[in-house]
Specification:
Helix 2 packs parallel to helix 3. The chain starts with a helix and ends in an 8-residue tail after the last strand. The protein is built from 12 helices and 18 strands. The radius of gyration is 21 Å and the shape is globular. The strands form 4 sheets. Strands 1, 2, 3, 4, 5, 6, 7, 10, 11, 12 and 13 form an 11-stranded mixed beta sheet that branches. Strands 9-8-18 form a 3-stranded antiparallel beta sheet, with no helix packed on it. 29% of the residues lie in helices and 20% in strands. By secondary structure, the chain is of the alpha/beta class.
């Protein structure tokens, strides 16, 4: 199916690596005020790191990893009593502070303080399986757009802060994704990024045994082990197919491959330009290659998040049609719209990113297909490790190995 939807040669392989990456992942706390289905972090009440520990972890990032932005995550980082100081410290190091939050603890007053401290952007995780309060209980993904819009408007009112949304996508919610893509387009002026993260857990129907070194580990009570048999093999291309059934012109331009399966699309990036009424086109591989290469030449690092002031430059982006087929096609469609309605020229065009993330895949031979060049790398005991699997070294001192369970013949 991948070959029918995407040819990797038509995409730009994002140049991110372990030492030179757009983003790093800081976890100042594991405390959270929600209990989301599919969460990979155990909620710990006494887990606030000291500011000195946080500064030390930032030192480790600066020593080993060249990054444009720091995702401040958790838990929920807004619950950390020194979140203002954390943002100030990151901004002081000339790195973009991006707060990853469910938004529950965010108020306009706190937002004003965070903006003054130098926050660059927010990524709000909102989906229907978070166990939110009564107002949002049993709301589906489309009904939750009301909550997404509340936060997007809050940031827009504050001004100059990047707005992104994450949603975990499950087998029974994937059909909502096209409408969520449309919602993001409807609010392209105040929503810069929309991210869909495909659900992964360790489930009973996964035919694997688990080992910490040579020691077998029982995973039944492990934090991200699910007791129910659930689908955990949805691919980014499966989700892409669902989107393209509604929007055939939807076109990714860049990707990250897997560590074990190079033809897997672990991070699948789409960039588009439009106004609130029309998406004029989808950028091609040359566009994102130019953006990443030029930014690295100018800033010495790869671009993580673009500021709202940049994403408002949609008309200027169309000039990259000199180099990029996608931008060229978008420019043609835009010019055609101006011929029909010249007054449209006075409306801004905006640039927006849509990302699909396909987390760990367990291969039949027991190998684990991770994201090659993963941006969500964090610090554990002064080492760089995958944040999505941090519970393993915390509990066992290492990442766990998966070994396939071989069926034994009845007459063995």
């Amino acid at each position: 199916m991948q070959e029918l939807l995407i040819d990797h040669k038509s995409l730009y392989r994002l140049p991110w690596t372990l030492p030179d990456n757009a983003i790093s992942w800081l976890e100042p706390t594991a405390l959270c005020n929600l209990k989301c289905d599919g969460c990979y972090r155990e909620n710990e009440s006494n887990s606030h790191k000291s500011l000195e520990t946080i500064k030390h972890e930032l030192d480790i990032f600066e020593k080993y990893r060249n990054c444009d932005g720091i995702s401040i995550a958790g838990g929920d980082p807004l619950l950390h009593p020194q979140i203002i100081e954390i943002v100030e410290e990151i901004a002081k190091r000339k790195i973009k502070p991006i707060i990853n939050t469910n938004g529950v603890a965010l108020t306009k007053e706190l937002l004003a303080m965070l903006k003054k401290a130098g926050v660059f952007g927010f990524t709000f995780h909102i989906d229907s399986k978070q166990g939110r309060g009564a107002q949002w209980k049993d709301k589906n993904e489309l009904e939750l757009n009301e909550l997404r819009l509340y936060y997007a408007k809050m940031l827009a009112e504050a001004g100059g802060i990047s707005c992104s949304f994450n949603s975990t996508i499950y087998e029974d919610t994937a059909h909502y994704v096209p409408e969520m893509v449309q919602w993001a387009a409807d609010h392209i002026d105040i929503v810069q990024v929309m991210v869909f993260i495909i659900y992964r857990q360790i489930v009973p129907n996964l035919p694997m045994e688990w080992y910490s070194g040579a020691q077998k580990v029982e995973m039944g009570n492990f934090w991200y082990a699910d007791q129910k048999e659930r689908k955990i093999d949805m691919l980014s291309t499966d989700l892409l197919k669902i989107i393209k059934e509604r929007f055939p012109e939807f076109r990714p331009c860049a990707f990250l491959n897997g560590t074990e399966k190079v033809d897997s699309y672990k991070w699948l990036l789409t960039n588009r330009v439009g106004d609130k009424k029309t998406i004029f086109g989808y950028m091609g591989k040359k566009f994102i290659e130019l953006v990443q290469t030029q930014y690295h030449l100018w800033e010495g690092k790869y671009l993580a998040y673009a500021s709202p002031s940049f994403t408002r430059l949609g008309k200027s982006i169309l000039f990259l049609g000199l180099f990029d087929e996608g931008a060229r096609n978008a420019a043609k469609k835009y010019v055609s719209s101006l011929i029909k309605n010249p007054f449209r020229f006075f409306k801004r065009l905006h640039y927006q990113s849509v990302m699909i993330i396909q987390p760990i895949d367990f291969m039949e031979d027991g190998s684990q297909n991770m994201c090659d060049g993963c941006p969500d790398i964090t610090v554990w005991e002064d080492k760089l490790v995958w944040s999505c699997r941090l519970e393993e070294p915390k509990k066992f001192g290492c990442f766990l190995r998966s070994v396939p369970i071989k069926e034994t013949p009845d007459n063995y």
